[in-house]
Amino acid sequence: MTDLISAAGLKKLEEEYHQLWRVERPKVVQGVSDAAAEGDRSENAEYIYGKKRLREIDRKLKHLGSRLKVLRVASPPANPVLVTFGCWVTYEDEDGNPTRKANCDVDMAFYMMQNGHSFDRAVVLSGDGDFLPVLKHLRKSGKDVYVLARSKRTAKEIKQFAASEFRDFEYLRELLKRNDEEEV
User: Fold this and answer.
1) Higher pLDDT, residue 88 or 51
2) Which residues face 92 on adjacent strands?
3) In Å, what is the CA distance from 84 to each residue of 64, 78, 81, 125, 129?
4) Regarding predicted confidence, which is higher, 104 or 88?
5) Rounded distance between C-alpha atoms, residue 137 and residue 145, angstroms
6) Alpha-carbon distance values, 16 to 26, 30, 77, 172 (Å)
7) What superfamily would CATH give domain 89-183?
8) According to CATH, where is 1.10.287.180 located in the chain?
9) What is the rounded CA–CA span in Å between residue 40 and residue 154?
10) CATH fold of 4-73
11) The 3-state secondary structure of the chain, one letter per residue
12) What's the rounded Cα separation, in Å, for the pair 47 and 42?
């Protein structure tokens, strides 16, 4: 599970935690206390279900509390209107020093080759022609290979290789827009 979250997502989790801790849990505790005061707890539905709800709340509070301790707000994109793909990767080198890099093509190719036995389908979000040898190897190994990229920026060899398994992001954008309009 990732430790990155949007600022809005973090705020929502914090609000949920405080709602459970300061509003809902005290009400349930009071209800359980009132039901317990009525006598026989073994046949008291309010007491039994109140205790059950209290356990559910406590379990949720424990989970939220542990997540809130480690979550970090992800940096917003430089241009929030532009949708792009890519990421920064932080890893530890052999000496344990954290290293950050943005260009992950070689690592992606390496892990596709190394872990090819653990998947049946590869979906590659890149039109970079440097991926062609690894994509050919995966297909030769019996894997389904799909390529999603911007057609204008995709190497001709990748389009020819992927053929009907190539999807243009621009086409997908239009398809999603049409689906949204149909739902309205």
Assistant:
1) 51
2) 98
3) 30, 10, 10, 11, 19
4) 104
5) 10
6) 14, 20, 26, 35
7) 5'-nuclease (3.40.50.1010)
8) 4-73
9) 73
10) Helix Hairpins (1.10.287)
11) CCCEECHHHHHHHHHHHHHHHHHHHHHHHHHHHHHHHCCCCCCCHHHHHHHHHHHHHHHHHHHHHHHHHHCEECCCCCCCCCCCCCCCEEEECCCCCEEEECCCHHHHHHHHHHCHHHCCEEEECCCCHHHHHHHHHHHHCCCEEEEEECHHHCCHHHHHHHHHHEEEHHHHHHHHHHHHHHHC
12) 8
How far is 145 from 164, CA to CA, in rounded Å?
Answer: 10
| Average pLDDT score over the chain | 82
Query: Where, residue-wise, is CATH 3.40.50.1010 in the chain?
Result: 89-183
Q: Match 């057609």 to its residue by tokens.
A: 151
Residue that the structure tokens 């001709």 belong to: 156
Residue listed under structure tokens 């999807």: 167
